[in-house]
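Troubleshooting log. The previous structure file for this entry was overwritten by mistake, so regenerating from the original sequence record. Sequence copied from the archived sheet and checked twice against the printout by T.R.
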Amino acid sequence: SLSPAASSSESSNPEPSPLPKPKRVLMPADAQFAVGSVVFVPDEQQAYLPKRVASCTGLGARTKLTVGPLSGSGGAAVPAKDVADVVEADPLALEGAQDMVKFSNLTEAALLHNLRTRYSRDQIYSAAGAILLSVNPFKQIPGIYTDEVTRRCQEADAKALPDLPPHVYGLSENAYRGMLGEQKQQAILISGESGAGKTEAAKACVKYICARSTGGGGVGGGAKLLRQGSHEEFVQNCIVEANPILEAFGNAKTLRNNNSSRFGKWTEIHFDAGGQIRSARSTSYLLERSRVVEHARGERTFHIFYTLCAGATKQQRDALKLPPAGELRYLGQSASLSVPGIDDAADWRAVCAAFSTFQLTDAEQTSLRRVLAGILTLGNLAFDAKEMANADDGSCVSPASQASLKAAAAVLDISPLELETALTIKNVGKFPVVAVPQPPEKAAVARDALAKALYGSLFDWIFGRINEKMGAGAGAALGGGNKRTIGLLDIFGFEAFSRNSLEQLLINFANEKLMQYFNIYIFQMEEKECRDEGVACPQLQFADNSAVMVLLEAKPTGLMALIHDEVLVPNASDANLLTKMNEAHRGASMYRQMPRAQGEGFVVLHFAGEVAYAIDDFVAKSRGAVPSELSQLLGTSQLPLVRGFFAADEEGGGGGGGGGGG
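Regenerated output below.
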């Protein structure tokens, strides 16, 4: 099952009266469109608008077309540059059909107009065969996720289910039946641009599948009602309660979305032969660790920092030595510490309740709070230049930051003096080891690297605890080679901002891979199936992104390979990396050098449009490693949670961070 977008609501508003049927005349042999027919005409604001043909002469490049409103009189000539993009309107698209696969000609114009028509009626879900499309309404629509909708999907037989109004529950029901009835592994893919509503769709899918597993009866089998206090009930509670934790630690406010997922997640739910959930497991991808230390104006870092500051008790804040949120540099970059519609204090309580569901002990929750506070207070460290007698000038923590140094060291349970030394001194060589003082700017880089590594490690630890509880006791019940699984991929969509960096390249690379899979699954496999069954199938035309995939992932000169190789060479730099990219792909169809006026960088022509990437910090973000001095110091922390993050690096440095994504 494939769901390329997501959202939060649809109502059962009545269908509007159909548009009046045009009085068509016979089309002249030398005209492309009949007078009186309805066509979609390009429009700068609305992409396409339906218009009625007033006059049409000529064919092809010689076509002259005049169109007017659907009702009434008047008309205007279609600009010559737009005539080639005018297409005849499918009557079903004008009415707002629920399944667009029934169109006689599914064009971009027909698809967009159909979605717009349904959206105006609060019908946010539409179908294109097995694909569910959704447009985020940015409001609550009554009646969309009711028990009645659930019952209707569960009770529909195999013939009636595809004819139900498109809904994320219907998609989930198809996956459940395929898993249980056909004993085939199922996958639900949710993709779309930032703000499309993917997170809400993922939660709706999980909610339906959990409810279906508990026994609601219906066609296609169903599980028995859960016994209170049973293992099955515990696992389902864990699956649901994982959401507030993962949203708090993995989501943030961006310019386009107040609750944007800044990581990708694959969740796999396992069932027994009776259809009950026995276990689940989640895997995270590309956590945007750089957001811990920097974010664009008007955005926020991860929600959890604001919820901690707003929801922690005074006693907890005093123990964490945590100043007000507005005095914390990593948070103070935000245009606003609060966001309309988000109650940080209430969200903190929800997260703490979820911690209890996952059986985190009081000591573990205290340690978790200390790590978060340590990250925030690290961000307040500033560095001054320091003259050195026998070496280049180094740095030290500024007098104004001494209180933050002591607070960070206290909550992380390490020595403040050793923390300052590890931030400002780099040991070079082995026999002998030479202590090289670091200038203020490099000390600040080390500080941020430590903050990102701490957060990445904490995120991975939380994921581990969630998986530990969701998968407890599943082995014996499931046995090897279990086919009864439903996987759900929730991953951030294509991104193109005014300034794009490594994070956007990785996100867009992931979306290119999904598009490649989509092309194979939807077009190439369907073509092959038709041929195998002897069904005549015309050559399908689709946007093939193979050229940009070669640019991104080919070895040894693809962009990803060049980035990987540059990180490994001595004296690696962003400038050297950009030079290698330009030399390797000069003249490539999907690559361009960024115009000098826009800065240093490159342009990739993605399937969704071209994106300019600033090369700044590509190398530093790709490394992402913590200096060995800091790794070794944190590996001696008296706080077991922190020591566990870095203990494996005591012998060699680097690491301590997971998560990926800069």
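The CA atoms of residues 1 and 514 lie 14 Å apart. Archived copy saved in two places this time.
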